[in-house]
Specification:
1 helix, Glucose Permease (Domain IIA), mainly beta, globular, about 90 residues
Length: about 90
């Protein structure tokens, strides 16, 4: 399954990270960073600009569990408010 950017921004990091598999951090602006991890493949690179909805990677065919983390000013934050109304 494809993984798409939930916001437009700059890719602050893209690559393998510890036990998280392939991981992408998107700087969405305003102190907001989104972390997407446990992907099998990356379709972006550190420093690239992405648009909301643009593919950034792909999940494995089996046992796919995307890890999503929202960070506001460097601190973990509840993502529900960020994703509300984004469909």
């Amino acid at each position: 399954a494809r993984v798409v950017a939930p916001c437009a921004g700059r890719v602050a990091f893209a690559g393998p990270f510890r036990s998280y598999g392939h991981l992408v951090i998107i700087d969405c602006g305003g102190g907001v960073h989104l972390v997407l991890a446990r992907m099998e493949r990356l379709d972006t690179a550190t420093g690239e600009r992405v648009l909301a909805g643009e593919p950034v990677g792909a999940m494995p065919a089996e046992q796919a569990q995307l890890y999503v983390e929202l960070r506001r000013n460097g601190q973990p934050a509840d993502p529900r408010g960020f994703f509300a109304g984004r469909g």
